[in-house]
C-alpha cells in the first residue's frame, strides 16, 4: 500500500510542478528543481473484520533551482502556495497541510488517511450441536 501512496503523491506533485520526484533519499548530483518525499510518522490502528486504518505523516521537500536567496525564497513560496491549493493524491485523503521554509528548502507537510482490508486467516468460532442420549429413570 505504501508504494501505491508514493505513486499517487508523485502523480499529484507532477500535476503541480513537473520536475523529478525522489523517494526517501536524494542521490548524489541530483537535479534541481526536484521534490523528495519522506515518511516521518505512521499511526496504524486495527478495525473490525480485518480492516486496518493508517495515518501516515509525510514531508515533501522542494529543492528550488539555484539562484540568490531572495529568488529561492520566492520560488519556494510560489510552489508552496500551488501545493496548498492544487495538490491531491488520487485515491487518498490529504489533511493537515503545513508549509515552512528552512535553509532555502520548502517543507510541505501533511497527513494521509487510508484503510486497507487484510484477509484474516484465523479460524472463526463455530457452533456445535451435541445430541446426548441420556436415560432418565
Description:
- The chain is an alpha+beta fold.
- Helices cover 24% and strands 39% of the residues.
- The chain has helices at residues 2-16, 69-86; strands at residues 20-23, 34-46, 51-63, 93-102, 105-117.
- The protein has a 5-stranded mixed sheet.
- β2 (34-46) and β3 form a beta hairpin.
- The chain is rod-shaped, with a radius of gyration of 24 Å.
What's the order of the H and E elements? HEEEHEE
Query: Helicity range of the residues?
Result: 10-25%
Count of extended strands:
5
Overall, the morphology is rod-shaped
Provide the β-strand percentage band.
35-45%
* Main pleated sheet: 5 strands, mixed
> Given the structure, what is the number of helices?
2
Instruction: Give the integer mean of the pLDDT values.
Output: 88
Strand order of the largest sheet: 1-2-3-5-4
CA-based gyration radius: 24 Å
Distance N to C terminus: 66 Å
The quaternary organization reads as single chain
Structural class: alpha+beta
Task: Give start-end ranges of low-pLDDT stretches.
Answer: none
Amino acid at each position: 500500500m505504501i508504494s501505491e501512496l508514493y505513486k499517487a503523491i508523485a502523480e499529484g506533485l507532477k500535476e503541480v510542478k513537473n520536475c523529478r520526484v525522489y523517494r526517501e533519499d536524494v542521490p548524489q548530483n541530483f537535479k534541481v528543481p526536484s521534490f523528495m518525499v519522506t515518511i516521518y510518522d505512521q499511526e496504524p490502528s486495527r478495525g473490525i473484520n480485518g480492516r486496518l486504518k493508517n495515518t501516515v505523516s509525510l514531508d515533501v521537500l522542494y529543492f528550488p533551482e539555484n539562484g540568490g536567496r531572495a529568488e529561492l525564497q520566492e520560488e519556494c513560496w510560489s510552489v508552496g502556495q500551488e501545493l496548498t491549493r492544487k495538490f491531491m493524491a488520487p485515491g487518498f485523503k490529504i489533511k493537515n497541510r503545513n508549509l515552512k521554509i528552512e535553509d532555502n528548502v520548502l517543507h510541505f507537510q501533511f497527513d494521509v488517511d487510508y484503510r486497507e482490508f487484510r484477509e484474516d486467516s484465523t479460524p472463526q468460532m463455530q457452533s456445535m450441536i451435541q445430541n446426548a442420549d441420556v436415560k432418565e429413570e
